[in-house]
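Incident log, structure service

09:12 report received: a user says their structure output differs between two submissions of the same chain.
09:20 pulled the input from the user's history:
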Amino acid sequence: MWRDAVLMAGKDLRIEARSRVAINQVAPFAVVVLVLFGFALEPDRGVLAQAAPGLFWVAVLFAGLLAVQRSFAVESADAARDGLRLSALDPAGIFLGKAAAVALELMGLEALLTAGVVVLYGTDLRGAALLLATAATATVGLAACGTVYGVLVAGLRVRETLLPLLLLPVVAPVLLGATRACEAALGQSLDDGWRWVTLLGVFAVLYVTLGILAFGSLLEEA
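09:34 re-ran on a clean worker, output below:
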């Protein structure tokens, strides 16, 4: 399973490195979202700094949708999805590999958006341990959940519009937990940020387990 996961993740990352879709389209889209949020709110940097955690994770979520759609769009060409079924790769390994590739892309995007939040919103970063734990657990949860729902709609003609409708309500706990944990790390809230990280961890474990167990059946039905 782990060998197949490495193979699948390497394949997806090589495709993205050659196509540069993540660099030329997904990353600029996320930055534009941050800029538009800045225009929508008052130009008062204090207001923007207070809203920064929520705006950051909304931008990550929107960009994550594009990354998941891209992950399965590459399997639609030249009957590549049929090739996966016939490849004798472990379905759990395929799931872990695709989710890992999405997670790595999101981590790179989050690093870029963190710089954007500091520059555009004037956010003063603090609580590094809590911020890193939040980013890690939230990213794994988003990638795993997105991969499960991505394969669920992969074979449908309306997958581009159906995926957001299915995925966005499900990942609402990730958006809430990550925002609250970041607020606690930045000193904007008196909540226990680690309690929210625990929620994010439970969500991530739940969808990683679901993907490992169900991805084979979902791939056959796609």
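09:41 both user submissions now match this output. Likely a transient worker issue. Closing.
09:42 reviewer note: Residues 78 and 189 are 51 Å apart (CA to CA). The chain has a mean pLDDT of 85.
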